[in-house]
Each structure stands twice: as C-alpha cells, then as structure tokens.
Amino acid sequence: MQSYPNSSWKYTVPKLSSFEERQADMAARLKAAGHKLTPQRLAILKVLAASEGHPSAEQVHARLQPEHPSMSLATVYKTIALLKQAGEVLELQFSDRDNRYDGHRPDPHPHLICTACGAIVDPDLPGLDNLAEELSRRTGFAVSSHRLDFYGLCPVCRAKQS
Amino acid sequence: MQSYPNSSWKYTVPKLSSFEERQADMAARLKAAGHKLTPQRLAILKVLAASEGHPSAEQVHARLQPEHPSMSLATVYKTIALLKQAGEVLELQFSDRDNRYDGHRPDPHPHLICTACGAIVDPDLPGLDNLAEELSRRTGFAVSSHRLDFYGLCPVCRAKQS
DNA sequence: CTATATGCAAATCGTTTGCACCTTA
DNA sequence: TAAGGTGCAAACGATTTGCATATAG
After folding, report:
1. Which pLDDT tens digit goes with each residue over B1-53?
2. Which CATH architecture group holds A1-107?
3. Of B15, B33, B127, B143, whose CB is crowded by the most CB atoms within 10 A?
4. Which residues on B lie below 8 Å from A121 (Cβ)?
5. Which CATH class is domain B108-162?
C-alpha cells in the first residue's frame, strides 16, 4: 500500500514477494547463470528489488553513493543488463529521458507516468493478458510481451498547476 | 488494407481520411501556427501522412533522397518537432533504436511491434479509451494519453526462425 | 524585404565498451 | 589462481542546436 501526499488516492499492488525475497530471487538467478555475487551487485539488487519510484540507473547509483562511494555508474548499467537478460527486471524505455527500471514486478504491467515530475506508479488494473492472447490469435503475431503506459499529471503536479 | 508477404494475416485500419487529406490537414495546421510551407516540409508531411511502416526520421529522410537529394536529416527532425507540438504526429519512443512516427493516426492507439525486424503495424483493437477514463477516475491522475505496444514475432520472422 | 527555414557541423546525453587492475569462488 | 567483475575514460548513436546562407510570404 502506498499513497500520494496531498491526495486521498490510494492504490494497491498485487500481493507479491517481499523486497527481501525478491532480492534473494534475483541473486539466486544471477548465481545460477554463472555470475558472481559481489557487494556492488547485491546492493544494486536491493535497490531494484524495492524499485521505489521505478528508479533510473543514475538514481540507483545515487542512492548507493553513501554506502558505496566508489561504485561506478557503468557497474549499475552492467548489472541491469544481466538482470534484463535473465528477465528479472522490467525496463521502461524513453528516448528523451533516462530509462526506468522495475525489479520488483519484472512482468509486463501497466504504469501511470506523470509528464511533469516523472513519477511512475503501478495502478491496479487486471485483465490485460487476455488482450495479448486475443491479439496473438487475431494477427498471427507471436505476442510475447507488452507495454502499457498512461501519461498525465499526478495529483501533486495537478495541484501545483492550478 | 494491408497484408504480410508469406502470410494469410490481414488487418484493417479504421476508416480514416486519405493520405492526401491528412497531408493537407497537417499543412493547414502548420500554416495556422505561423510556419512556412517549404517544399521540404510538404515532402516530409507526405511521407508522414502515409506513415507506411511507421518510419523513423532516418527512413523519412532516406525515402526523400531521390526527390530532395540535398535535404538534411536535421530538417526532418525539426519538422517532426513542429508536428509533435501541434499534436499531428504520434511518436513511439525507443531508447535502443530510432524513434518511429505515425502521422496518419496521431491519436494514441495500440501497436504490434516485431522484435526481430522492427516492423510496426496497427492492429484493430477497439475500446481502450474507456480504460484511460476509468484510470483517471480511480487514481486521481489526469490521464491525457497512453501507449500500448505488443511485442512479438511477426508472421514473416516467425517463419524464418523455425 | 524580413522573418523564418535550411543545411552543415558541432554539441548533447544516456548508454555501452575497452582495458588495466581487483575480487569472488 | 583463474574466470569474471570493477572503475575509469573513451566511444557510440540518436537527436538537438548554433549559425551562416537561402527562401517563403
């Protein structure tokens, strides 16, 4: 459960594994794929497992500065690349700003994106996978994933505007 | 109407204005916004009005080489920027490849994207705007647009794989 | 004529890569 | 100790920008 300041809006995320469980899962997956578990990687996994605010690579890096002052941004990108290969992180690509990452829910799911402040949240909106199946049947495409973003002003930025 | 080679798949796009009408609309919009209608711009509008294959800026440029050998890629980007401002072109952003543009249907609508060859088509899939409205009501976001992409292998690339 | 557009080349910026030095297992 | 990881700096590539010249209205 999570809520916006200055707003009565609340939304729930489906009951999923805890952050700790997610981090452990991701670590196990990397190890299984033959990768080493360094302190840097574990720290990056921890941030991505929480994915609070759907951070960019730079935000992950910034968040770890206190604990790991010498960690380089390249290491963050390299770790994210491994996780992408393993299907353990969802990447939201943008061409006009940093990509954003969700390691807590790596399966495709809808996002609400504030066009003013860049906030990204997970709304509760079930029943989309059916759409993908239907499309596969109708079009001959072998649909394997999807992306659904809604763009608009979040309650906070809405208030600021008026 | 349009179809893939080596495939019985067909899809239809909603009945819309013809390419010529779209081009004229876009030109009128630019003029109304105080911009000049140069031969380069008109040529770019023509390609975007058709939007066959949802071209990238580079593809638009390449397609116009024969007629306008001296046209620069920067001019294509600048014209697209004007059209984006005017809401006359839909931009599909990607961070790992060129952005793609649709000037024929500038309103948000679903896309089917082949992860192998990059083909982009418009499937017929009505009833999504309701979703956006519902989300607005539920979340407090002022949802103004959306993006829905389905990723998979198109029939042609599917055949090549097996 | 004058504001605006074009074309070129340089700048931007997120991301990736090469490589010498470290670390995990 | 060997395979793989880290950090740095340079390279990349799509897009944007500055500016001198050209052109639409």
Report:
1. 333 233 333 344 455 678 999 999 999 999 999 999 999 999 999 999 999 99
2. Orthogonal Bundle (1.10)
3. B143
4. 139
5. alpha beta
